[in-house]
Amino acid sequence: MTISIISRRRLPAVLAVLLASGLALPAPAAAKDLLVFAAASLKNALDDIDASYKKETGKAVTVSFAASSALAKQVEQGAPADVFISADLDWMDYLKKKNLIKPDTRSNLLGNSIVLVAPADSTVTAKIAPNFALASVLGDGHLAMANTQSVPAGKYGKAALEKLGVWDQVKNRVAQADNVRAALLLVSRGEAPLGIVYKTDVASDPKVRIVDSFPDDSHPPIIYPVAVIAASTNPDAAAYLAYLKSPTAAAAFEKQGFTVLK
Q: Which domain holds residue 156?
């Protein structure tokens, strides 16, 4: 997961942002490349979409995948992104309030859901319902989640557990990760017996399986908005947003389990 530098004039500022965020420094991208900041859960779908986009247009797209919270903060600090795709409305609203996106380019792109997952070879079972015995199912282990205070997947998961009346059972036994893919990895490696991730994440890792799905009414609607960053002058940004709503992109999103919003 890397960010490529587009403007050499802004190199010192961008280096500071990258070092502060703990992200690795990449090789420089070509000046014409579009730089997209996207929620970590979009990686598989966007990798396929961007490959198709390059094949059809001849233009490359550089994508930085991370938690929406981290990406929004990087935009705020001056990272030269052109497009931002968030895993929730809150972080897009955050940038809007600071006049850091072009409001007329904003739209709701995708929907998703959250699930309880376990390692593929685990025999654990659970039925998600009000006051279900999550702590007992965990045994001596921890529940892997993205950061519950800032990362969308973690916030959705916490909201669901609170609504179901089981948060207090497990709040001191949560292994919090920087983003949802990192939480998924804890389960995939067997370091956590259970985790809460997006349904779409499960398609990316054969070493995990879905135990049960959280009811849609147990958490706020999971919506992925997209917008062009206010400081972007890249002429390809609008075309890329249009491509994200094309039949080709829709098929790639749906293949990973996303709901394409019309």
A: 114-218
- Residue 29 CA, chain-centre distance (Å), reads 23
Separation between Cα atoms, residue 230 and residue 43, nearest integer Å: 24
pLDDT tens digits for range 202-245: 989 999 999 999 999 999 999 999 999 999 999 999 999 999 99
Number of structural domains the chain divides into = 2
Tell me, yes or no, if the pTM score tops 0.70.
yes
Residue in 243, 251, 245 with CA at minimum distance from that of residue 57: 243
Q: CA-to-CA distance for 42 and 108, rounded, in angstroms? A: 14
Both 118 and 107 in one domain: the answer is: no
Cα–Cα distance measured from residue 260 to residue 238, given in angstroms and rounded to the nearest whole number:
19
Helix (H) or strand (E) holding 62: strand 61-66
Rounded Cα distance between 133 and 146, Å, is 21
The mean pLDDT of 185-195, rounded to a whole number, is 97
Sheet holding 174-177, edge to edge: 174-177, 143-146, 194-198, 114-119, 208-213
Q: What is the tens place of the pLDDT at every residue in 52-86? A: 999 999 999 999 999 999 999 999 999 999 999 99
Do 73 and 45 belong to one domain? yes
